[in-house]
Q: What sequence folds into this?
């Protein structure tokens, strides 16, 4: 059995995949593989060679099933499921007998299982970007299309260093603070964001697409010191994009507003009545992050793309 580790605290054992397949999963999740040392949090997955390696549309319907009486709580990905264990029970991926899962469905099943096992350890996966710039360490929160990738690339443009442009894992670092580790091993650029990629990284972008729209992939391993392994945040940006504005606006928010933004950026299932034990572990993490950071509401205007260097330096100065 192989184990995927994030930092010094997060660990998930995976049963059913070969060592090479586990390394592939760990690489996608920015984790490291080591031999299993008796970790309680295990994910059982059917062998990958049984999966049909055909691509399907990236958007796959995900639902919730069970969770009442003796029925285990499960998340469905198309006709397939991952049963979410509790206590020392592992998560179990189950494929439908009606058809084999596509590569995308199989990837989602594994990701859901890992996400749940991390949450059971009190380690939330947060939909947000994290970067260092001008001596400031920033966690950016917001819905899709709220500019997380854009500010991350703009930070690179000004000489900053990025942990992640979209998803991070919060892990205690042993001195009362929380560090943010990257989850994805790549940046996923779209629209005009590619236009502000630093010159030295432009030739490293790989063209791709999602739902028929162009995307550009920027692999962490190809970008050297532009990416960092972790960020200890001191500032939280609650982001949105306002195309009516030319110049971005910054205003302070209190801990309650910051806490609400962290809740929205995490998985609602694990904070619901379906998962009370996990909820009781995650809420203190969000409170600690709020105590650790100062919060600001950032409304991004058009100048961020027109003058990324000047606008990012101004935003960081206003957030100090």
A:
């Amino acid at each position: 059995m192989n184990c995927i580790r994030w930092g010094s605290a997060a660990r998930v054992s995976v049963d059913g995949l070969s060592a090479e397949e586990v390394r592939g999963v760990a690489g996608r999740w920015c984790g490291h593989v080591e031999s299993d040392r008796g970790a309680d949090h295990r994910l059982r997955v059917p062998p990958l060679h049984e999966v049909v390696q055909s691509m399907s549309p990236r958007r796959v319907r995900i639902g919730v099933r069970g969770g009442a009486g003796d029925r285990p709580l499960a998340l469905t990905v198309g006709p397939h499921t991952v049963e979410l264990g509790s206590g020392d029970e592992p998560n179990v991926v189950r494929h439908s007998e009606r058809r084999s899962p596509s590569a995308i469905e199989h990837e989602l099943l594994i990701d859901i299982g890992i996400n749940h096992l991390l949450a059971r350890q009190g380690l939330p996966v947060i939909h947000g970007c994290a970067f260092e710039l001008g001596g400031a360490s920033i966690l950016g929160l917001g819905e899709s299309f709220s500019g997380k990738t854009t500010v991350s690339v703009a930070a690179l443009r000004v000489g900053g260093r990025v942990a992640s442009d979209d998803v991070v894992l919060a892990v205690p670092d042993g001195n009362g603070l929380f560090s943010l580790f990257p989850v994805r091993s790549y940046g996923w650029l779209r629209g005009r964001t590619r236009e502000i990629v630093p010159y030295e990284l432009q030739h490293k972008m790989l063209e791709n697409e999602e739902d028929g729209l162009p995307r550009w992939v920027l692999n962490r391993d190809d970008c050297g010191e532009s990416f960092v392994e972790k960020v200890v945040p001191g500032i939280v940006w609650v982001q949105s994009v306002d195309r009516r504005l030319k110049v971005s606006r910054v205003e302070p928010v209190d801990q309650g507003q910051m806490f609400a933004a962290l809740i929205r950026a995490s998985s609602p299932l694990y904070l619901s009545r379906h998962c009370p034990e996990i909820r009781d572990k995650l809420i203190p993490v969000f409170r600690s992050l709020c105590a650790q950071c100062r919060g600001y509401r950032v409304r991004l205007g058009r100048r961020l793309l027109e003058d990324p260097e000047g606008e990012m330096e101004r935003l960081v100065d206003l957030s100090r």
Q: What stands out?
A: Helices lie at 19-28, 103-120, 148-157, 199-202, 255-265, 276-292, 303-306, 308-318. The first strand starts at residue 2 and ends at 6.
